[in-house]
Structures are given as C-alpha cells and as structure tokens.
Design a protein that fits this description.
Layout lengths: L11 E2 L2 E2 L1 H13 L7 H4 L4 E2 L10 E4 L7 E7 L2 E6 L3 E6 L3 H6 E6 L23 E3 L5 E3 L1 H8 L4
Antiparallel strand pairs: 1-2, 3-8, 4-5, 4-8, 5-6, 6-7, 9-10
Length: 155
C-alpha cells in the first residue's frame, strides 16, 4: 500500500513519507521489527552487510547529491524500495548509475529474521511466486523490473 505514496520530508504516513519513516513503517508493519526513526540512527542498526551478500530486507544506504543520507529496503535482484524525494515511494535498482555511485553501505538489523521474506530470483513464476507490492490505489502489481525481466527472458 506504500507504492506511489508522495514524498514529504518529515512525513511518516501514507499522506506523505520520507525515506527513513517509510523504512521504519514497513519494518514494523511487515516484520514486527522496531528500528530507529532517522537515517542517521538507522545506519547504526545491526551489522554491516557486504554488497555481494545482500538479502531481501537488508537496509541499504546512500549519500546522494540532493540529501546527505538516504535509505531503502533491499528486495533482491538489485531492486530496492525507497521514498524518492522526486517520485515518492518507488522501486529502483542498484545497477542504475545514480544509485550505484551513491551507495555507501548495507545493514542487517540483529533482530531481523529474513527467512519469511520472498526472494526475487530468475526462476519461472510457476516455480516461485514473484513478490508484489500493493499500490496506493489498492491494486497489486509486479515490481517494475519484473516486466524487464520477462522481456529479457529472466522469468
């Protein structure tokens, strides 16, 4: 229900949300995990994760030209969900030049159990269901990269 929610600095609900509040809300609602409210504090949650060892649910951090700190939730296959200051809550990919250059670190909160999270893989959808995110209008749609994956024969 967060996809498409507008960005609002300091916002913490579906009327407008910033990146750290988005992450905090998703962690609590989906996983029952309470994490810090600000990106600066979230950067100290749990343990460091190497980029090559990212798993769905990991927190990923960026230093961007527009803002000092930015955070998102890793989804798998390079995709991550975040509250973009220009486009609101959306899915982006770590291979995009902007995010590749801005990436600084990833963290895994100690209390996080990643086992129940869906994992994005290159497997056919009949073998493993694709994770879905519900839009702010209530419709459920595949992650935007799923269409690219289908076009490229990945799924």
């Amino acid at each position: 229900t967060w996809l498409g929610t507008p960005y609002q600095w300091g916002g913490d609900d579906r009327n407008g949300v910033d990146c750290s509040a988005f992450v905090q809300n998703v962690y609590e609602a989906a996983l029952g995990v309470r994490i810090a409210r600000t990106t600066a504090l979230q950067q100290n949650e749990g343990s460091t994760v190497e980029r090559s060892a990212l798993e769905p649910g990991d927190l990923i951090f960026f230093h961007t030209p527009k803002r000092t700190d930015h955070v998102g939730i890793y989804l798998g296959l390079g995709d991550f969900a975040h509250a973009s200051s220009s486009r609101g809550v959306m899915i982006s990919n770590l291979s995009e030049a902007y995010w590749k250059a801005a990436y600084t670190q990833a963290r895994r909160p100690h209390q996080l159990d990643l086992s129940p999270l869906p994992v994005r893989t290159g497997m056919a959808s009949t073998e493993q269901p694709s994770p879905r995110i519900e839009s702010s209008t209530g419709s459920s749609a595949p992650y935007p990269t799923e269409q690219r994956e289908k076009e490229n024969g990945v799924v």
